[in-house]
Write a structure and sequence with these properties.
The complex is a heterodimer of chains A (155) and B (772). Chain A has 155 residues and is an alpha+beta fold. Chain A is built from five helices and five strands, in the order ββαβββαααα. Chain A has two domains: 70 residues, Beta-grasp domain (Ubiquitin-like (UB roll), Roll), CATH 3.10.20; 73 residues, DNA polymerase, domain 1. Chain A has a five-stranded mixed β-sheet with strand order 2-1-5-3-4, with helices on both faces. In chain A, α2 packs across α5 and α3 crosses α4. Chain B has 772 residues and is of the alpha+beta class. Chain B has three domains: 214 residues, 2-Layer Sandwich (Aldehyde Oxidoreductase, domain 4); 161 residues, Aldehyde oxidase/xanthine dehydrogenase, molybdopterin binding domain (Aldehyde Oxidoreductase, domain 4); 341 residues, Aldehyde Oxidoreductase, domain 4 (2-Layer Sandwich), CATH 3.30.365.10. Chain B is built from 20 helices and 28 strands. In chain B, the strands form eight sheets. In chain B, strands 9-10-7-17-14-15-16 form a seven-stranded mixed β-sheet. A five-stranded mixed β-sheet of chain B has the order 12-20-19-18-13, with helices on both faces. Classes of the chains: A alpha+beta (155), B alpha+beta (772).
Chain lengths: 155, 772
């Protein structure tokens, strides 16, 4: 039994301790916005925030998030920066297939909350763990910069 | 037009507008999928019939019936059916946008519904071959225009005025003399009982009247759901009582299960059942590979259960497949004369008279699509009816394959297409849906979702082929080629459908090897045989990748040998602007298009080259370690040229500051998405060139996940991609968009590396070949 807060709501997860948070979110709670891409923390599609830090949920056992605050793509819009990132993604036409973009948005939001004015190399460092096979990287970079220039100092 | 929930649920059997005689159904073949039929061997299957081209040449052709594609609710909501699969190309925006434009619908009041797999109803749905817009632009315009005409007729009848006095405009019909207006919602019911106008009577808009087509102002219909996690992919299907499965498949293609022990598996909490899936005899087609499935109460339980299986496999005839050894086999074949597939002039005489001879060999390994969403499908069987959910590029093939395997009529199988988390050709093959069907049947029809892990995806793909391209040229005293030999050796996609197939099919040869439009007097193209040892399938832009890599690299090598500027040299090799009937190049395929409507136009190829060179600042002086490379390629009846700028540091690390692409795909329906497709194709081309490789040892794929099978990430992507669209004319036929951006990228990148370093790359991926 693992007590955890997800998107502001309290849950008790009745799953083996080693169950990755990813599958708890997707299969048990129906929060399918967090995506499976590799299962080895190599692609970033499963990124969530745990106590404000970006984390790959595919390798995070549910036991590790006991009594912690998890935010997923379904909840990130309640955050001012997260909402701005989502808006920039739509406005700049970032998604192609869209599958990886929830993880991209979680990583980008974490970056902008920690570093409101990221340089190109800051973006490379923060975003290179998130694969986009459609190849939307140029637009992701531009959308992060657009959000940063609009958000100046907000985060 | 009474507000049905989706257009797919409507009955309009008596109102089919399309002329059925134009859409010949070729029974029993559609299970192969449209690609093979439409592309592989059209003349053989069509017997004595005159050849059919474009959408007419595809299984089940096209439909332009407004009652199939358009529904209008009494609240004015217009629902437009998209019958092609969305995998990132923006088709769920672009296709309905065409209908909405002709319909004079207000996009804010348009909803998009996804068609089920039903080609007799919707026309061809095989979302492949960069065909959606070029095949369905005209039928979708007619759908919209016909629906608009029916609304106008309903309004004229209501007002008892001549129909010539009314006009549909922005979601309402206006009576010009009186200024009276009726909204589409108020007219919906009456419009539905109007006869569908004859196709010949339809009044289509002029391009100047377009409100959405060609404008690029509309946002993607799915973007709001995609960025909030609401978008539904194949992986996201959830049904009451659903079980979750993963499958252990034979690690070697052609291998078989000998025995297994599931004792430990059944002890894993959450594991419900272990089920054997029977393998199918060769050729593989779209059948499952067989193996042992573990069904659990969630995905993780199934994965843990699979890990605990003890399985003995018999590896079968491909147990020794080894990529290093196979490369040598291909090279050996490439160095001997092979089947001649084009022979212009006299190559040997040309070579004998040449001032100098050059030769080179280029290698491109197997590749896996590695869409971010691995294959996933869910099946439920209730009361003799089967429902299938998933990420399918070819919903009709999915329907036919599932029906066949379950021994059901296709009419009892409903295929519901979700969004695809990338496709790239992999999801045209519905083997994963058949697995889910077998498993649902094994648990009395309960819903079962089959999830492929990334390891499954990389081990059991329908891989891009592996190839050696052998090029020889004789050049005159000025270095101009007078004789050109290209021997292409690669296992064929046909081996997936036909046991023993070992020569490239017309559709593979027609992807940039047989149909090179070069102004060289003596050209010989040969295709020695090659045996497939794994499932070969189509990967975004397919054989164009190795063919363009070879011929665009080799032309640059000839330019360097002649001491000439690569761009000017390439323009000279292409020669003057002229229209070439592809059949005169030995290309009987021409991407399935009419040789008259779609000749190879070297003027357009020259124009994209000249445009990209100008826009990229070709010839500009660059600091040490930087270089520009150029390449051009015609594929999917579209012309693309690119200039790649590279920076190679003193450790041999390559970065790509900027790429320019010029594209002539004819008139552009959604310029914003054409740009996006070119940007994405550019990154995929860079991934192929820099890091992409699937290799085999002992018959097994050596890469397991994104650590072994690398793909380009943010840090390796170009900092800037500039796409230059050549304006087109809507009176002329459209070109493809999804694929043609990929092929010129690898050679342009390697040509840039040569410019920067003097080192010529002939073997992909580049990976550490430049490392000091």
């Amino acid at each position: 039994m693992t007590p955890v807060t997800i998107n502001g709501r309290r849950y008790t997860l009745n799953l083996p301790d080693d169950t990755p948070l990813l599958w708890a979110l997707r299969d048990e709670l129906g929060l399918t916005g967090t995506k499976f891409g590799c299962g080895m923390a190599l692609c970033g599609a499963c990124t969530v925030h745990v106590d404000g830090q970006p984390l790959r949920s595919c390798l995070t056992p549910v036991s590790a998030v006991a009594n912690k605050k998890v935010v997923t793509i379904e909840g990130i819009g309640a955050d001012k920066v997260g909402k701005a990132v989502q808006a920039a993604w739509v406005e700049m036409g970032v998604p192609q297939c869209g599958y990886c973009q929830t993880g991209q948005i979680m990583s980008a939001t974490a970056l902008l909350k920690r570093n409101p004015r990221p340089s190109d190399s800051d973006i490379d460092d923060a975003m290179s763990g998130n694969i986009c096979r459609c190849g939307t990287y140029v637009r992701i970079r531009n959308a992060i910069k657009r959000t940063a220039s609009r958000q100046g100092g907000v985060a | 037009m009474n507000a049905p929930r989706t257009g797919t649920q409507r009955r309009a059997d008596n109102l089919v507008l399309a002329n059925v005689s134009r859409r010949r159904f070729i029974q029993g073949v559609s299970a192969l999928g449209g690609f093979v039929l439409g592309a592989g061997f059209p003349s053989a299957l069509r017997g004595a019939d005159p050849p059919k081209y474009g959408a007419d040449g595809m299984p089940n052709g096209w439909v332009d019936d407004p009652l199939v594609f358009v529904a209008i609710g009494e609240d004015g909501t217009v629902t437009i059916v998209c019958h092609r699969s969305e995998m990132g190309q923006g088709v769920r925006t672009g296709m309905p946008m065409i209908v909405a434009d002709e319909l004079e619908a207000d996009w804010k009041r348009v909803r998009v519904a996804q068609a089920t797999g039903d080609e007799k109803r919707f026309g061809n749905q095989d979302t492949d071959g960069s065909r959606s817009t070029r095949h369905f632009f005209d039928p979708m315009r007619r759908c919209g225009a016909a629906a608009r005409t029916m609304l106008e007729a309903a309004a004229a009848a209501r007002w008892k005025v001549p129909v010539t006095e009314v006009e549909a405009k922005n979601h309402e019909v206006v009576h010009r003399p009186s200024g009276r207006r009726l909204g589409y919602g108020a007219l919906a019911k009456a419009a539905a009982s109007q006869p569908v106008p004859a196709r010949e009577t339809l009044r289509l808009k002029t391009p100047a009247q377009f409100r959405y087509i060609g404008k690029g102002q509309l946002k993607l219909v799915d973007a709001p759901d995609m960025v909030t996690g609401k978008a539904q992919y194949g992986m996201d299907t959830r049904l009451d009582g659903m079980l979750y499965a993963v499958v252990a498949r034979p690690p070697v293609y052609g291998g078989k299960l000998v025995r297994y022990d599931a004792t430990e598996t059944l002890k894993v909490p959450g594991v419900v059942r272990v089920v054997e899936i029977e393998a199918s005899p060769a050729p593989p087609m779209f059948n499952p590979l067989g193996g042992v499935a573990v069904i659990g109460s969630n995905t993780w339980a199934a994965v843990q259960g699979r890990r605990a299986l003890k399985i003995e496999w018999e590896d079968g005839p491909n147990a020794t497949y080894d990529s290093a050894a196979f490369k040598a086999t291909l090279e050996e074949a490439a160095r001997k004369p092979g089947k001649v597939v084009r022979d212009d002039g006299d190559f040997n005489a040309g070579l004998a008279g040449a001032a100098r001879r050059l030769d080179a060999e280029y290698y491109v390994p197997h590749l896996a699509h590695a869409a971010m969403e691995p294959p996933a499908a869910t099946v439920r069987i209730v009361g003799g009816k089967c429902e299938v959910w998933g990420c399918f590029q070819s919903p009709q093939a999915t329907r036919d394959m599932v029906a066949k395997r379950l021994g059901m009529s296709a009419a009892d199988v409903t295929v519901r297409v979700t969004l695809l988390g990338g496709g790239f050709g992999r999801k045209s093959k519905p083997d994963f849906a058949v697995e889910a069907a077998v498993l649902s049947k094994a648990v009395d029809g309960k819903p079962v979702k089959v999830t492929w892990t990334r390891e499954d995806d990389l081990h059991h793909s329908y891989f891009h082929t592996v190839s050696v391209e052998h090029l020889e040229a004789g050049v005159d005293a000025q270095g101009n080629p007078v004789a050109w030999l290209h021997r292409s050796v690669a296992p064929t996609i046909m081996s997936t459908f036909e046991k023993g197939a070992n020569h490239e099919a017309p559709f593979e040869l027609g992807m940039g090897v047989i149909n090179v439009p070069f102004a060289i007097p003596n050209i010989r193209i040969e295709n020695p045989p090659a045996t497939a040892h794994t499932r070969i399938g189509w990967f975004r832009s397919v054989s164009n990748i190795p063919h363009a890599f070879a011929d665009q690299s080799f032309v640059a090598e000839l330019a360097a040998a002649a001491g000439r500027d690569p761009k000017n040299f390439l323009l000279d090799v292409i020669g003057p602007a002229r229209m070439i009937n592809p059949q005169t190049l030995g290309d009987t395929w021409n991407h399935g298009e009419s040789p008259e409507r779609y000749p190879v136009d070297t003027g357009r190829l020259r124009q994209v080259l000249e445009t990209v060179a100008r826009e990229a600042g070709w010839g500009r002086t660059l600091p040490k370690g930087r270089g520009l490379g150029i390449a051009a390629h015609y594929s999917f009846v579209t012309y693309v040229a690119t200039v790649v700028e590279v920076l190679v540091d003193d450790k041999g690390v390559v970065t790509i500051p900027r790429v320019d692409l010029a594209v002539d795909c004819g008139a552009v329906v959604n310029p914003e998405r054409v740009r996006a497709q070119m940007e994405g194709a550019c990154v995929m081309g860079i991934s192929v060139a820099m890091v992409g490789e699937i290799s085999f040892k002992g018959g097994r794929v050596e890469q397991n996940n994104f650590n072994g099978y690398e793909v380009t990430r943010m840090s390796g992507a170009p900092r800037e991609i500039r796409v230059h669209l050549i304006p087109g004319d809507f009176a002329k036929p459209l070109g493809g968009v999804g694929e043609p951006g990929v092929p010129p990228i690898p050679p342009a990148l390697c040509n840039a590396i040569f410019a920067a370093t003097g080192k010529r790359i002939r073997r992909l991926p580049i990976r550490d070949q430049l490392k000091a």
